[in-house]
Amino acid sequence: MNSGSLGPIEEFSMGSVKVTDPYCVNAFGKMIEYLLRLNPDRLLAGFRAVSEGKDPRTEPHPDLYGGWEAAWSLVRGHTMGHWLKALAQAYEQTKDNPSLNARIKEKIDYTVEQLKLCQDRSKTGYLFASPETHFDVIEGKAAGDHWVPWYTMHKVMAGLVAVYKHTGNQTALQTACRLADWAHQRTSQWSPQLRAKVLDIEYGGMNDVLYELYRITGDPNHLATAHVFDEDTLFTPIAQGTNILPGKHANTQIPKFIGALNRYRTLGESEEFYFRAAQQFWTMVVRGHTYITGGNSENERFREPGRLDQYRDEVTNETCNTYNMLKLTRELFKLTGDVQYADFYERAFVNEILASINPETGMTTYFKPMGTGYFKVFGTETNSFWCCTGTGMENFTKLNDSIYFHTESDLYVTMYLSSLLNWEDKGLVLSQHADLPNSDSVIFTIEKAPADQVNIKFRVPDWIASEQPVRLRLNGEDYAASSSSGYVDVNRTWSAGDTVELTLPMDVKVSRLPDNPNTVAFTYGPVVLSAALGREKMVPTGHMLSVKATIPEGVRIKDYIAVKNGTVDDWIDNIASNLVRTPGRMEFLLRNTDEDENLKFTPYYLEYENRYGVYFRLVSQD
Prior knowledge:
alpha+beta
């Protein structure tokens, strides 16, 4: 067996952290309700058909769900992997509710057993919801349509591995291992030319899941197969700092670098090249391709770096991209402790992930438009099953996984979100009460104290108000905490009942797009602000294999704000006087513009019912 992460910073198990923030509690509950309403037999229908020698495209199964799980789809089965992983994550967090926990476990165990029965019908270990000829087609061995079979295989394998990790289900591990053996048998026959041909088609995080499996099994075949999916022709120019991303399908690339980083985590310093490639990729995406919310891509692709205003439309910010960027971000943080990764994680978590759900229905979005006047389109319960439906299932059953981290002696507090931490190995129980951005005060209480000293490192966010320091009070008294590398530290022997109160001052800030500095967005503390622009004719339309928002003819959207009495730069320099919070409300009103009486800016992540504007063009009336 291989050892765990190289990094000095470790994550907590999902059962050790409970989120108590009301918005997140509701989202978590809505997602679990949805996951349990889904019928595993309908998700299994494609797998059963294929295991019986049938092709659901020519012999449609009556139990198949619609959308991307329907008979016509060749990514059928991807939802199974996401659903299993989401349930496994939920299982670990619901042990304080035995009835709910048992229902989740029953669904998981039944489904895994049925998948095993499907796999048992195969002599090779093949388990999939479309026939193996799908893989033959992309290798040029057969004629026919193809989509992205390795991408879908990654989802299935990742779901099985997650079930084993979170529930201990041995059948899930055995099934994943047989799939890995099948993958090894197939890929070991590839010539370099055939390998290049296959890897030119989206394959998800096959390298990542195989490294993860190898860390569990130590099987050299799993390691060898993971290496097959490491795309050094992509990694090399990126590691050298050459941005070759423009025009590439964005979510095809991100999982490859998650896998590259896992290679480094798994094998050590000899693989430093892969660590460097992942770091460089992250920097390129965040600095050159990312909107204020933390989202990236336009129509699923990276565009020219910095050309964000040019491509600001109704198909920006695919949610899957943020899901994967956050996976990459948290692993980079664990390896480096660099606060820039924690800062980005919070920004994208709040303004992309929390923004991607309809809190009434639990349905999630594909795109989040940065074009002014569009709206969020949410999936349907049984007839969408987009890629972002699957990652949405996972997102809202792991809301707790990046609030706290630890070393042997240090506790990192990286996000300010009401929660309860049980660091069982240390005997430390810590509660956090936060209500950002409504209040700038965050209170931590030691509910159970450890015997040994623990250094608690509180992140100093990059959004702190200009020239206003973080204030820390220990047991009601001002405390001069030491400060280093983006954290303030309190290192002591704690007692039950100890409290730490952080004051995190916030102000309005302006973000300007690089290709048009007069196109701006506003933030307040950790939240991006948006203005509601009405609900007229909020009619989506089909887009590729998903949907997008529209602005039909006759709907008038004003995407600019005219500033009075000076230049745009003057107005921005005085933003504290020009975008003012309404007392007692999380709402901001303009001053000295032509929209003072019309636009009200509120947290973007809470907007799900209206057309909206995150970005507006500022023009001068002078």
